[in-house]
Amino acid sequence: MTEPTAIAVAMSGGVDSSTVAAMLAQTADAVVGLTLQLWDQTRLAGKDGIPDAPKAGRCCSLDDVYDARRVAEHLGIPYYVVNQQARFERDVVQPFVDEYLSGRTPIPCSLCNNHLKFDQLLQTARSIGASRIATGHYAVNEFDPARGRWILKRPADRAKDQTYFLFGLTQEQLSRTLFPLGRLTKPEVREIARSHGLALAEKPDSQEICFIPGGDYKQFLTAYLEEQGRQIPETAGELVASDGHVLGHHDGISNFTVGQRKGLGVSSPTPLYVLNIDAASHRVTVGADEELATRALRAHRLNWISIPELTAPTRVQIKIRHRHEPAWATLEPAGVGEVTATFDEPQRAVTPGQSAVFYDGDEVVGGGWIV
User: Fold this and answer.
1) Are residues 240 and 336 in the same domain?
2) Do 248 and 306 belong together in one domain?
3) Which of 59, 60, 109, 112 is an active site residue?
4) pTM over 0.85
5) Separation between Cα atoms, residue 139 and residue 308, nearest integer Å
6) Were 210 and a residue from 60, 164, 264, 306 both cysteine, which residue would form a disulfide, CB within 3.0 to 4.6 Å?
């Protein structure tokens, strides 16, 4: 049986994925546009301070679907919208809520990529006769025959590097995915969009999490739990200094994240930051900015890309946030499914629930979730 040669382009309605569709429409045997409908932007509108109308700049909106369809029509390619709202809520929204209620700080974009987007896009692509998918992510993937593995690399445009959010991709997913923008810069992408006559060539990039209006996760938690017939669990407790001295009390651990400065509810002659959130005791520890620095982290739920597994101490660079400059560290196995990392220099605000992504130069070695 002949392998299908069509390519399914994940079209978000932005300039990047639209440019990918335009590029491939000229070179591929057949191109199909796919959009995953993930969240109803009107849901929760008007509740608990959430705006009545969706704000511009949020990804996956109805306007984005309209823009993607318009681009597909302009290019003359088939286009389909696949409703994945139920799975998105199960695999992304609910874990996001549970993590915050447990005193951790989740990354929904990584959850979405790891557990939904690539998996579902590949399944849908196969069902319509496409062997591969293409996305507008800024990343590079290529096969290394010497290692017999697909390798994920940082892109040419470092300012747009999205490998931090892609660390969970499997070898199978990487083998079936194209990143046509990996060796281009954003200005070059916009110029290509203009050359193809795409009306959204100047469209701004989306900045907000698609289901968090205005970026206020506290409003979202309250409104979402109310809709579900639930209340935010009672996690009020003590606000303490790093020496254990009680400074005051707080209304709940879901109001805090490591590194937070504003909204602590206590006054101090010097700025205070959240250092630690203890979900068991409901105690939130605060201190000076320099106390946020640490040289160690532990990560679990690992995924390896450039190597099959970690078997010995290895020198890597680690990103602990999307905009964090990778820092040198020694990575070591730490029992089943876990690693520890010791940084050469202390790093600020290592936050449980965030991702730690390991790099060897431009290559993504793998990654996991900070414990």
Assistant:
1) no
2) no
3) 112
4) yes
5) 20
6) 60
